[in-house]
Amino acid sequence: MPVNLPAIDPAQLFPVAGVELGYACAGIKKPNRKDVLVLRLAEGASVAGVFTQNRFCAAPVLVSKDHLGHGNIRALVINTGNANAGTGEKGLLDARAVCEAAASKLGVKSSQVLPFSTGVILEPLPVDKIFAGLPDAVADLKADNWANAAEAIMTTDTQPKATSKRVTIGGQTITITGISKGAGMIRPNMATMLGFVATDAAVPQALLQALLRHAADRSFNRITIDGDTSTNDSFILIASGKVAVPGFNDADSAEFAALRDAVTEVSQWLAQAIVRDGEGATKFISVKVEGGRNEDEVKAVAYAIAHSPLVKTAFFASDPNLGRILAAVGYAGIGDLDVSLIDLYLDGVWVAKDGGRNPDYKEEDGQRVMKQSEITIRVLLKRGPAETTVWTCDFSYDYVRINADYRT
Hints:
By secondary structure, this protein is α+β, with helices and mostly antiparallel strands.
């Protein structure tokens, strides 16, 4: 079961003017499962994207990057059940064919369609099934379809992930709604798994890309489940342009900052939802590292802890074998780290002081915290002003089972 992840309430997912969504059950991997999703965007919408840094990136990632360069994006097509990754030139042709098929149904150019895929790698994309499902997805297009959309992009997720927010900026009500998917092969290095966020704000393309990067670096680029960067990671931000606020044209304005913060908040919720629904997860763990000389240092330490199988399995067992955390700090790659300065906290429990066991620390206090479903690891490096937080989960028996059985 997901760790404290609330079920979607469709009534709390606000429609975004200028964005319609429709799904189909195309039988890509399993029958009677929502597995094709189409988003139709109003003319004049701006779209920004960040993608996986995995060099073996999937065909739809390459095609989406190319089409984004042309601008004036009018539609997105997402399929689950097959990643169309490791498929060579045929995979590129298939991704482009899906764009052409969707474009013909929507009355737009194929270069105005962005394709996305998620699922098994190294398998040919079943384009005939996607083609057959597109008419139903297009016929289903409507603005209040976010809950179904969240289901239509799931793979090993145990529940759909979606959230909404409304804020008043410059006297106007701005709506932001987003969905994400992911539960395994999660260590985004750009953006993430699949994440789609839409707002009705009018934001120029160049500023939208900067806003997206800001949000990604504080959300999807701060999560890990297993340290594996997917071939298909994509995070897309849509600004439909239906609500104009003059300040949204100025990156230095208070209005733009308010919109950026709201989009970041929605993105963080979606990113954390992925960790809460991590494959086999029983604990949601925040790793906060403070006192680094720069951001690279604190990130390196945070991820060393968050990626460690030994740390993650100890948390699953609620075993306060916390020397494993100090070991991870030590191999994080800071060559001149003075370990005699390091402090370690587990929630409010002071575990290590000045690089050694705190004389007042009692193991029963550590075990009490580790039995909680939500835990914060806090490391003080005492080297400078930089700090960061990374979100992760534990490793359970079920993580191995899910991934061993993934293709069956």
